[in-house]
Amino acid sequence: MKVGVFILYNKNTYAKERQSGIFTAENSSNVTEQELIQGCIRQDRKAQEALYEQFAPLVAGICRRYLKNEEDAEDVLVETMFKVFNRLSDFKGEGSFEGWIRRIAVNEALMFLRKNNRMGTMEALLDFDLPTQTTVVDTLSMNDILHALDQLPDGYRTVFNLYVIEGYKHREIADLLGVSINTSKSQLVMAKERMQTALKKVGF
User: Fold this and answer.
1) Where along the chain do its domains lie?
2) Which residues contact 130 (CB under 8 A, 6 or more apart)?
3) How far is CA 185 from CA 39, 67, 69, 123, 126, in A?
4) Least reliable range by pLDDT among 26-40, 77-91, 145-159, 169-183
5) What residues contact 97, with CB distance under 8 A and at least 6 apart?
6) How far apart are the C-alpha atoms of 120 and 179, rounded to whole Å?
7) What DSSP line would sit under 111-147, residue for residue?
8) 27: which DSSP letter?
9) Sign of CA dihedral 100, 105, 106, 111
10) pTM summary value
11) Cβ–Cβ contacts within 10 Å for residue 96, how many?
């Protein structure tokens, strides 16, 4: 295992080193994003910690939205950050660095769902385009959405995340999941209906 990602896999060592003061963030606010990336590529441990602490909460939130089980979400978080550190040299500065990390996180979550056969059978309910109407779901806070997402089957939750949260188009979702565009649309409508029903039960 490369030193550059060791901190992600040995939590006990990581905690001890933090307590001993080896890692400090006193200069992190003065470091540019590009300097941080280059520091990680050079396997600078302080740069690695700064990058991890800056983006791990974002990745954790993405993973948790796709996966109900917190341990599964944590596993995908670790795999995502492992790939981020190992692929930093692939980031060419085209587009946002955060967006680049988000794509890796989403792909890792989808891979986990496929690997564990969690997507189920996704079929279009109708042969024509389904309307997407504004519902209470469109005005929820992220905490409310997370609570409602936990009530959905994996397929519905995945399409909802990709379309509503990540901003993917139905054609892109269809390509990612290997389904038809109408399947993506119908899954989104059903996801919103399920979420709205769940939310009404708790007073929304």
Assistant:
1) 3-115, 136-201
2) 182, 185, 186, 188, 189
3) 43, 21, 26, 10, 10
4) 26-40
5) 33, 37, 91
6) 12
7) HHHHHTT-S-----S-SSPPP----GGGG--HHHHHH
8) T
9) positive
10) 0.70
11) 10
- Side-chain-side CA neighbours of residue 146 (13 Å): 13
Q: Which tops the pLDDT comparison, 149 or 101?
A: 101
User: Residue 43 corresponds to which tokens in the numbers above?
Assistant: 């396997």
Residue type, 172: E
SS3 19: helix
Structure tokens at 45: 């441990």
On the question of pLDDT at 129 being above 50, the answer is no
Over residues 131-150, the pLDDT tens digits come to 344 444 445 566 777 778 88
CB 55 within 8 A of CB 98: yes
Classify domain 3-115 at the CATH class level: mainly alpha
The predicted pLDDT at position 202 comes to 63
Rounded CA separation 95/81 (Å) = 19
- CATH fold of 136-201 reads Arc Repressor Mutant, subunit A (1.10.10)
Q: How many residues does the chain have?
A: 204
